[in-house]
Specification:
Number of helices: 7
Family: Belongs to the LRRFIP family.
Protein name: Leucine-rich repeat flightless-interacting protein 2
Helix content: over 70%
Shape: rod-shaped
Number of strands: 2
Pfam families: LRRFIP
InterPro entries: LRRFIP1/2 (IPR019139)
Distance between the termini: 73 Å
Strand content: under 5%
GO biological process, one term: regulation of DNA-templated transcription
Order of helices and strands: HHHEHEHHH
Length: 401
């Protein structure tokens, strides 16, 4: 039993060391995770600054290209009318004779220039809209790229969290299995103790002994601090019957009662012996002083009565001495058995209390571990659903891009 208790203590010490190591590993993992998150946040900020810078550069380049295109178109508009004018002057010089025809040509040239200007304005408006749409598309592309990066970071964080939760789940499962093994071992120890108690009871019955409960004077004095538990003593059937005849009370009280009865019997025996000696002396004096004929019958009667009384006293004395010797042997045997069984009972009670405390502790730890496992399974399923949603969102974004 002591070796089993020592083994359990060593197991508990080993469990505490393993728990400390696991806590240290968990703290280091959390520190690494926090450092990774901080590094990701810094990288995200740097990426945001780069994206904003690229967006500003793209807008400036778009404005610059737009200005260059509008300047080229204006130069083209300023340069193109010169050949028209020259051709018109030539036609006017060649056709100087016809004024009507020249007026018609001037009207056609004015209408053509207006059409060209309208088309130029339309092209400029379309180009401006196209540049604006291109800038918007670039902005949307940058925002989508940023969202994709964010989703990638979240996905990595969720994968790390899921991996950590899975590790914790495996550790908790190992702890649960270990606690189950410890509980099974405690059950086996309990069954072994019960079998030993059953064997003890069978041996007591075979030897014709009886277990008697008693409370000592020290236990009566300690009842003020709490309820006292009666102790047990293994005695023979005759001793148990004698103790039952002594009445109720502690074993010390009953033994004192037997001792007082013994003392009273001894006093009574001494008193009877004194009376017997007085009777004998009186008979001798009467026999010597009285006549032979007159006192013969009286002496015979007195002698018979004295012999009878002496026989009774001798019988009572022998019986009292026999009872006294029996009681002394019983008291000695009871005291030795009390000492032996008291130590055994204290050791058994102490071991039983330790086993009960350890069993309650293990049951509480098993319940807490089962609750933690259920929480981790729920969190794992929730994170798995979130991970599936993020994967679906990522695939949808990639399809749109």
């Amino acid at each position: 039993m002591e070796s089993a208790i020592a083994g359990r203590r060593r197991t508990a010490t080993r469990h505490s060391a393993e728990d400390q190591a696991l806590d240290q590993i968990a703290k280091e993992a959390e520190a690494r995770l926090a450092a990774r998150r901080q590094a990701r946040a810094e990288a995200r900020e740097i990426r945001m600054r780069e994206l904003e810078k690229q967006q500003k550069e793209a807008e400036e380049n778009a404005d610059r290209v737009y200005d260059m295109c509008t300047a080229d178109v204006n130069r083209t508009m300023r340069v193109t009318p010169d050949p028209v004018r020259t051709s018109r002057l030539l036609t006017n010089s060649n056709n100087f004779q016809s004024s009507r025809r020249s007026s018609e040509d001037s009207l056609e040239d004015a209408g053509l220039s207006r059409d060209i200007r309208l088309e130029l304005k339309e092209f400029e408006e379309k180009f401006r809209k196209a540049m604006i749409a291109n800038a918007q598309l670039d902005n949307e592309k940058s925002s989508y790229a940023y969202q994709v990066d964010l989703l990638k970071d979240k996905l990595e964080e969720l994968e790390e969290t899921t991996a950590q939760l899975r590790r914790e789940l495996r550790e908790k499962n190992r702890d649960v299995e270990q606690l189950k093994r410890v509980s099974q071992r405690l059950k086996e120890d309990l069954d072994f103790c019960r079998a030993q108690l059953y064997d003890r009871d069978e041996l007591i019955k075979e030897n014709g002994l009886v277990i008697v409960e008693y409370v000592s004077d020290d236990d009566y004095e300690n009842t003020e601090n709490g309820p006292c538990q009666p102790r047990r003593v293994l005695v023979s059937t005759e001793a148990a019957e004698l103790l039952e005849t002594a009445g109720k009370g502690s074993l010390d009280v009953r033994l004192r009662k037997f001792a007082s009865e013994k003392k009273e019997l001894q006093d009574e025996i001494r008193h009877l012996r004194l009376e017997l000696e007085e009777t004998r002396s009186r008979v001798r004096s009467e026999r010597s002083s009285g006549s032979v004929l007159g006192c013969l019958s009286d002496n015979d009667d007195i002698q018979r009565e004295a012999n009878k009384l002496l026989a009774d006293y001798k019988f009572k004395l022998q019986k009292a001495e026999q009872d006294m010797s029996t009681l002394q042997a019983t008291v000695a045997r009871l005291e030795s058995q009390v000492i032996r069984y008291k130590s055994a009972a204290e050791a058994s009670e102490k071991a039983e209390d330790e086993l009960k405390v350890e069993k309650r502790k293990l049951q509480r730890e098993v319940r807490e571990t089962q609750g933690r496992v259920e929480e981790l399974e729920t969190a794992n399923s929730h994170l798995q659903r979130r991970l599936d949603k993020l994967k679906n969102a990522k695939s949808a974004l990639l399809k749109e891009l």
